[in-house]
């Protein structure tokens, strides 16, 4: 017996996973959701014959050109169906005005690095400043090693990108990637923070190599970047064993000061890795200390961060999320 459209939709949605299916269903009319859900509830968990038949039908239609995927004409038809002609035209006009800088997010990082390598390091640095740190880290990692240090130094030194530089960058992107034209206003940056966020997403070997090159030219700058790469709140990402190793190297004075403004989650993380007696003493010390200077709290937190960073560099602790990695439990 041939399947009707609702049954086909039910089988297809059953194959794409709960999250995707939920996103599709929420935009359908209530009556369609009801009918499709009814078929989904009645279907067997593993109806491979129907699934194979449906997927074969879809592939045949794609190959035969009955189903077109993407393209301006496809988008225009889709928007016209859902919004009407006038609104569809307005949205298409907005999309067509997307600048080369905005279009960077769609470019494969390795493709981007392959053409950026022929550009001046200052141009590369400014482009990385304009990208999301995760994508910028991939581009940085794909650059030749002898280029990375120079580029990282220039990123760290960036405080503002003038309009003229943005226009020049867009011209480079337009010529290399054949993107549309666009303009942007001047942008302000804290370069050390930008490069710190990029390096946080890089593999450890890449991160260390770049920092060593920066340190060779400007030791103070390298230290500023290191301080921004790991902040006090990041300690919550360290596992219990790591927290215990850090605590062994801390003074009670630094700990009581640092926890004055700490988030509750981090406080609980610290407390659960101490003995009950030690927690009681620490809490009493925090209460009896009274008001303290913000600068003293920040100094104590930075002392703890230095300890954590030293243990991290020695490979004794692992900070979840650095270099795009998660902890394996």
Characteristics:
two-stranded antiparallel ribbon; 3 domains; flat; disordered C terminus; 68% helix; 329 residues; Annexin V, domain 1
Q: What this model shows, in words?
A:
The protein is mostly helical. It has 3 domains: 5-63, no CATH class; 102-224, Annexin V, domain 1; 231-324, Flagellar motor switch protein FliG, alpha-alpha superhelical domain (Annexin V, domain 1). 68% of the residues lie in helices and 1% in strands. The chain contains 20 helices and 2 strands. A two-stranded antiparallel sheet has the order 1-2. The longest helix is centred in the C-terminal third of the chain and has 20 residues, at 294-313. The radius of gyration is 27 Å and the shape is flat. The two termini are 49 Å apart.
If helices are DSSP runs of H or I spanning 4 or more residues, what is the number of helices? 20
Secondary-structure element string? HHHHHHHHHHHEHEHHHHHHHH
CATH homologous superfamily classification of the largest domain: Flagellar motor switch protein FliG, alpha-alpha superhelical domain
**CATH class annotation of the largest domain:** Mainly Alpha
Q: In total, how many domains does the architecture comprise? A: 3
Shape estimate: flat
Indicate the CATH architecture of the largest domain: Orthogonal Bundle
What separation lies between the terminal Cα atoms?
Answer: 49 Å
- Helix and strand content put the structural class at mainly alpha
């Amino acid at each position: 017996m041939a399947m009707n459209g609702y049954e086909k939709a039910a089988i297809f949605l059953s194959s794409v996973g709960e999250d995707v299916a939920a996103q599709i269903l929420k935009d359908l009319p209530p009556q369609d959701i009801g009918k499709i859900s009814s078929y989904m509830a009645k279907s067997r968990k593993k109806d491979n014959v129907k699934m194979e038949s449906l997927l074969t039908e879809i592939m045949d239609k794609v190959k035969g050109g009955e189903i077109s995927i993407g393209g301006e004409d496809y988008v225009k038809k889709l928007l016209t169906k859902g919004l009407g002609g006038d609104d569809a035209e307005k949205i298409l006009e907005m999309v067509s005005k997307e600048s080369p800088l905005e279009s960077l997010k769609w470019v494969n990082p390795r493709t981007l690095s392959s053409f950026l390598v022929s550009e001046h390091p200052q141009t590369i640095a400014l482009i990385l400043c304009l990208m999301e740190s995760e994508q910028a880290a991939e581009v940085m990692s794909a650059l030749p090693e002898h280029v990375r240090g120079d580029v990282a130094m220039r990123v760290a030194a960036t405080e503002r990108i003038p309009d003229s530089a943005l226009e020049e960058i867009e011209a480079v992107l337009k010529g290399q990637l054949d993107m549309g034209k666009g303009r942007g206003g001047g942008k302000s940056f804290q370069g050390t923070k930008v490069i710190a966020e990029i390096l946080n997403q890089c593999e450890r070997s890449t991160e260390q190599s770049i920092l060593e090159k920066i340190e060779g030219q400007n030791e103070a700058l390298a230290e500023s970047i290191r301080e921004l790469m790991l902040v006090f709140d990041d300690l919550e990402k360290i596992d219990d064993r790591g927290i215990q190793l850090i605590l062994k190297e801390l003074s009670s004075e630094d700990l009581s000061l640092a926890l004055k403004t700490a988030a509750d989650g981090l406080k609980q993380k610290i407390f659960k890795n101490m003995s009950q007696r030690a927690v009681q003493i620490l809490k009493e010390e925090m209460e009896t200390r009274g008001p303290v200077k913000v600068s003293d709290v920040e100094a104590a937190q930075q002392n703890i961060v230095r300890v954590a960073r030293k243990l991290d560099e020695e490979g004794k602790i692992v900070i979840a999320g650095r270099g795009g990695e998660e902890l394996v439990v």
